[in-house]
């Protein structure tokens, strides 16, 4: 989760797509809108996701500022394949 947040902050679309489950991954991303910038990530809850698990859930709040100021809360599901974690889906809260 933290590495994906860092990728959002730096606009690393390639990393985000590489770490997205191929079954739910979009064809492309457009992170060029620089009117807001994410600057802080708080992990609120985790379920599973240890080296012993194949799935995990992370609830987080990401804070942004710029043209708008606020935060986004999401509960994200991750799955592990060949020893690597992939973002599968998320529900905004």
UniProtKB/TrEMBL annotation:
InterPro entries the UniProt entry points to: NTF2-like_dom_sf (IPR032710), YchJ-like_M (IPR048469)
UniProt xrefs under Gene3D superfamilies: 3.10.450.50
YchJ-like middle NTF2-like domain segment(s): 1-90
Name of the featured protein: YchJ-like middle NTF2-like domain-containing protein
Family annotation (Pfam families): YchJ_M-like (PF17775)
Organism: Corynebacterium endometrii
């Amino acid at each position: 989760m933290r590495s994906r947040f860092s990728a959002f902050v730096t606009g690393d679309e390639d990393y985000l797509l590489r770490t997205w489950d191929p079954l739910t991954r979009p064809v492309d991303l457009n992170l060029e809108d620089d009117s807001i910038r994410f600057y802080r990530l708080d992990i609120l809850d985790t379920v599973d996701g240890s080296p012993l698990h194949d799935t995990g859930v992370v609830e987080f709040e990401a804070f942004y500022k710029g043209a708008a100021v606020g935060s986004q809360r999401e509960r994200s599901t991750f799955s592990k394949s060949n020893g690597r974690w992939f973002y599968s889906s998320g529900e905004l809260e």
